[in-house]
Amino acid sequence: MLMAGLAAVSLTHADSGRQLPRDMPAAYVQECGSCHTAYPPGMLPAPSWKRIMSGLDQHYGTDASLDATTVQQLNRWLVAHAGSYKRVAEEPAQDRITRSAWFERKHRKIEPAVWKHVSVKSAANCAACHTGADQGDYDDDNLRFPAGLDARYRRAWND
């Protein structure tokens, strides 16, 4: 009985989408995390990760090509840990986390100007506000409001 309970808690936590799995390949941080946040694989469904990994030569306007062995390793890992729960069941436009329904809902009060602010740069820069993004921590209690944004944006953020 205890094992079943622990398994249920473990599965719930693993499928939260916001945590980085413990078995993260070093290549994921080295290759993907060198240009942007190494996003938790649970933030996208498996079909999105498959398309992303099969189009690295045109990765959102950049050539992020990798050797076939690394692509295969990362693809297997991403698909194995992809979001499989209701929140990420739909494939977002252009396979972008920032275009997913759950992301847009969570950030609906953020005005477009905030994403363009010099300290934020884009909605994909999670670490601008989520202080633990590189560890897969997106808890709302650990938000930091970027410096240089005026009080009007701060009010919207905190509402």
Short key terms for the protein model shown above:
mainly alpha; single chain; 38% helix; 159 residues
Task: Describe the 3D structure.
Helix content is 38%, strand content 0%. The chain has helices spanning 2-14, 26-32, 46-54, 68-80, 101-106, 112-116, 151-158. The termini are far apart. It has 7 helices and no strands. Helix 3 (46-54) packs antiparallel against helix 4 (68-80). It is an all-alpha fold. The chain folds into 2 domains: 23-96, no CATH class; 107-159, no CATH class. It comes from Hydrogenophaga bisanensis. Pfam families: DHC.
Oligomer: single chain
Beginning-to-end CA distance, first to last residue? 43 Å
- Enumerate the spans where pLDDT stays under 50 for 5 or more consecutive residues: 1-15
Q: Please give the number of β-strands.
A: 0
- The total number of structural domains is 2
Structural class computed from helices and strand pairing:
mainly alpha
Q: From N to C, what is the helix and strand string?
A: HHHHHHH
What is the radius of gyration? 17 Å
Q: Hey, roughly how much beta strand do the residues contain? A: under 5%
User: Mind describing the biggest β-sheet?
Assistant: none
**3D shape:** globular
Mean pLDDT: 83
Helix content: 25-40%
Protein name: Diheme cytochrome c
InterPro entries: Dihaem_cytochrome-c (IPR018588), Multihaem_cyt_sf (IPR036280)
Organism: Hydrogenophaga bisanensis
Pfam families: DHC
